[in-house]
Amino acid sequence: MKTTMSTLPGKAAIAGIGATEFSKRSGRTELRLAVEAVRAALADAGLTASDVDGLVTFTMDTNSEIAVARELGIPRLSFFSRINFGGGAACATVQQAAMAVATGIAEVVVCYRAFNERSGHRFGRVSAAAAAAPTSNGIDASWSYPMGLGTPAADVAMFARRYQHVYGATSEDFGRVAVAGRRHAAVNPNAWFHGKPITLEDHQTSRWVVEPLHLLDCCQESDGGVALVVTSAQRAKDLPHPPAVIAAAAQGSGPDQFVMTSYYRDDLLGLPEMRIVGDQLWAQSGLRPGDIATAVLYDHFTPFVLVQLEELGFCGPGEAREFIAGGAIEMGGRLPVNTHGGQLGEAYIHGMNGIAEAVRQIRGTSCNQVGGPVLVTAGTGVPTSGLIVTGPGID
Amino acid sequence: MNSIEAEAGRLKALGESEPRLARDPVNEPMINNWVEALGDRNPAYPKFAPPAMVQVWTMYGLNGVRDADDPLGAMSKVLDAAGFTSVVATNCEQTYHRYLRPGEQLAVTTRLSDVVGPKRTALGEGWFVTTVSTWYVDDEPVAEMMFRVLKFRPPEPSGSVLRPLVNQDTEFFWQGTAKRELRIQRCPDCRRLRHPPGPFCPVCGSATPEYVLASGRGSIFSYVVHHHPPIPGKRLPVVIALVELEEGVRMLGELPDVPPDEVWIGQEVVVDWSRVDSELTLPVWRARHD
């Protein structure tokens, strides 16, 4: 691996988090959700709109930076940026913000993501627009959509079947991820599935969506918005909450990379793009997997949680099922995962709600409190990103 | 009792159809062709006929017309009229009482044994139709067959198949499918095969890719059974496979004829073609039984 000394670690911190309620029908526009989330995050950070000079979001977000800035009355923006590849953008929005802050390009950057993903455009459906996009992605999609493979669940199921075949993982092994997520969500009042844990039997008897994935292997679809305020670690020290210092932030794309259909690599067992992210996170932070107290692993579908544990080095290839079966990802385990309930249990806000949970872990305010350092990942099966956040004591 | 059950009862009561004579007596040339095609080197043939050939002797031939009193034909018409227009054979059990010898003249009769339904199946709602055929030499029964089909109502696909986006880098592939050719991109310099294709060779940088014709044979590398949500132009559930071609590249495609619980990783498949319309033909995959 190419190792370049990064000057990013420790320079920036997440000083504010904000969110709307998580629902199935927000009853208001995506722009309103975005602005509500940003306002909440600024209030949490003890800052105002006029402090903000940067905005970052996903290319998929429908709310333009200028529209958000107008509604908030932000008088002056000197930095705005967007990240591609769906949920893979989540942690990279924070990386963009941190790089802008670390280089002095901006002082206060807000990352946001807001959508009516349940009551409006649903990502779980077959997207004729994605299949016909007049871009290289549209050409890529022509090798899957016309062939009948056209939903994210189906894309992951193809991978999951091969993973089962080679490593002997079972549907129950996937199900334990959902059971853990829902158990964590059950005590989180902001979670859609607050008070609604599930059993492995519930998972096994839930209907097929795309075999080998049951309904309860798939995250929810949600309406809502999340925003994160990034500023310099120095400035964050003077703000109301303990800063969540960005100890590492990375993006990754692997060999022969496709969006959700990287089926043409030698094997179909790993997420090399996530390994590329992980390698950078360890190099930047100087931490090792054994140092991580809790992780927020992107859980749009359960199988990739197993693969992430392997690619990030928490266990060996093919060993995640034993790691999970031993209770490691639950409270009290070696590595509690998705303590907010994840996208399976809390809400699907394209990974951004998981970053907010990492901040709560650093602040000590999670419903399932563990502490730091916290590793967070973004969308899987796509070019992706990751973060490690720590308390202010670790440089 | 509904009209399907009433008609089934009437056809069952008719009992055996009139004996239908085989077109030719049991004969050595046909036996030789059969054992050669199947690679059966048993030295007892062609002095005797392989028992499993029994159905062969009474086949209708290319231009044959089913007998009016054939109960499977009659029952199928009833079910077709009720909308159960698709058919798949589900069971076939044959019993042989003795070997047949060249020169023997066979006749076959068929009776309707059972019509059970409507049943919800993975293919759609349908009726299982079971017939029993008996082969005779003169008055001696020499073999029997229980044969069961599922006559089902094909679920309606929603919308039309999503069409591929085609550009100058990829048009060779789709021009190939229109001619029922499976084309794989090949680098003229380093000979590397590649799918999906692109404008350059990612290994050696060559900018003038060409293509080769695939044999069309491969095996299933992975697969899914899609139940939900709807896919434009597809009847659900549908099996979609990632096929590894024997040339080494992988390709996605539907497996239209294999029931979901009979698909497995490593299963050998061969390409076939699904013509969507005059401008689009898609490769699909069928199980290979050779």
TrEMBL record, chain A:
<dbReference type="Pfam" id="PF00108">
    <property type="entry name" value="Thiolase_N"/>
</dbReference>
<dbReference type="InterPro" id="IPR016039">
    <property type="entry name" value="Thiolase-like"/>
</dbReference>
<dbReference type="InterPro" id="IPR055140">
    <property type="entry name" value="Thiolase_C_2"/>
</dbReference>
<feature type="domain" description="Thiolase C-terminal">
    <location>
        <begin position="265"/>
        <end position="371"/>
    </location>
</feature>
<dbReference type="InterPro" id="IPR020616">
    <property type="entry name" value="Thiolase_N"/>
</dbReference>
<dbReference type="InterPro" id="IPR002155">
    <property type="entry name" value="Thiolase"/>
</dbReference>
<dbReference type="Pfam" id="PF22691">
    <property type="entry name" value="Thiolase_C_1"/>
</dbReference>
<feature type="domain" description="Thiolase N-terminal">
    <location>
        <begin position="26"/>
        <end position="231"/>
    </location>
</feature>
<protein>
    <submittedName>
        <fullName>Acetyl-CoA acetyltransferase</fullName>
    </submittedName>
</protein>
From TrEMBL, chain B:
<feature type="domain" description="FAS1-like dehydratase">
    <location>
        <begin position="23"/>
        <end position="145"/>
    </location>
</feature>
<dbReference type="InterPro" id="IPR022002">
    <property type="entry name" value="ChsH2_Znr"/>
</dbReference>
<dbReference type="InterPro" id="IPR002878">
    <property type="entry name" value="ChsH2_C"/>
</dbReference>
<dbReference type="Pfam" id="PF12172">
    <property type="entry name" value="zf-ChsH2"/>
</dbReference>
<dbReference type="InterPro" id="IPR052513">
    <property type="entry name" value="Thioester_dehydratase-like"/>
</dbReference>
<dbReference type="InterPro" id="IPR029069">
    <property type="entry name" value="HotDog_dom_sf"/>
</dbReference>
<feature type="domain" description="ChsH2 rubredoxin-like zinc ribbon">
    <location>
        <begin position="174"/>
        <end position="210"/>
    </location>
</feature>
<dbReference type="Pfam" id="PF13452">
    <property type="entry name" value="FAS1_DH_region"/>
</dbReference>
<dbReference type="Pfam" id="PF01796">
    <property type="entry name" value="OB_ChsH2_C"/>
</dbReference>
<feature type="domain" description="ChsH2 C-terminal OB-fold">
    <location>
        <begin position="211"/>
        <end position="273"/>
    </location>
</feature>
<dbReference type="InterPro" id="IPR012340">
    <property type="entry name" value="NA-bd_OB-fold"/>
</dbReference>
<dbReference type="InterPro" id="IPR039569">
    <property type="entry name" value="FAS1-like_DH_region"/>
</dbReference>
<protein>
    <submittedName>
        <fullName>Nucleic-acid-binding protein containing a Zn-ribbon</fullName>
    </submittedName>
</protein>
